[in-house]
User: What shape does this take?
Amino acid sequence: MHDIILETERLILRLWREADAHDYYEINQDPRVLVFLGGPLTRKQVTDFFSVANDRYEKQGFTLWAVELKESSVLIGFIGLDLVRLDIHFTPAVEIAWRLGSQYWGNGYATEGARAALAYGLDK
Assistant: This one.
């Protein structure tokens, strides 16, 4: 299966690969990234996340995709679409979500990827 789902001017949004584990683990150890997330992920949680995310793409046609920089192929985090999994007054709903390494903040990557994910979702 071809794992590239979306491309923007500077980003590739794709399915997760085993080779992403180290970089995504490191992103999830960064205190700046984790400030609102409840703590770091273990290596097992990282690889389990990959399986769940790729499986959701297969089943629902969207997910939280791995995002890499086109110019360097460096994994910088995730951007994508996900079901809101809370039982609250506005569900069912789909959210746009992202988690990027803090060294990539302030460059417009989240906005660029979120716009592409939104356009993708509206076309579904």
User: Anything to note?
Assistant: The mean pLDDT is 95. Helices lie at 21-27, 31-34, 43-60, 109-123. The radius of gyration is 14 Å.
